[in-house]
Task: structure prediction
Amino acid sequence: DAGVIQSPRHEVTEMGQEVTLRCKPISGHDYLFWYRQTMMRGLELLIYFNNNVPIDDSGMPEDRFSAKMPNASFSTLKIQPSEPRDSAVYFCASSPIPGQGSGYTFGSGTRLTVV
Amino acid sequence: AQKVTQAQTEISVVEKEDVTLDCVYETRDTTYYLFWYKQPPSGELVFLIRRNSFDEQNEISGRYSWNFQKSTSSFNFTITASQVVDSAVYFCARANSNSGYALNFGKGTSLLVTP
Result:
């Protein structure tokens, strides 16, 4: 298995631009999570999906952030408009039903820089 | 959210020393899962271990060992005979059904192993 695949690996964009981050989870995993990592706040959960349905988006910072999972093999996290404070590493992770397998597998992350 | 506390922000040891990374968690649940992840300088999050709340057996994997103590809500991680390649940030995390099994991370402990 290729693991969780995120794209792009790096993104540099100007303030005000729309940014779309992409994630392909591991086939068969029922859960998909989006996390953001910053020095100040550490690793924080933004949103998670169960069987493609968004369950909890209380971690999404504000309305500028949105996430979708149109099918079991693809999810996007969109920021529109982007701001410098959105600069962070964004991780996608997938997991089978807890209690099965070894746990949560993370993608390599997308390092976003908003200038 | 129920907190995960890693009180040690940074630890520096000399190669071949043993080092223990502390993790204390809050929980109001009878069933939960505990994890350790490693984040090397390259930035990816590498799964190390998962423990279920009903399994208090300690575990050893090579130079790594974990001590799970429900009575003190701790899940400590020990590296024996540390090596330079162990230098990384280590994260402790917990998950339970109330949060959809989303991982709740501690702030991490940065371990530096010098030759």
Remarks:
- Chain A touches chain B through 25 residues (CB under 8 Å).
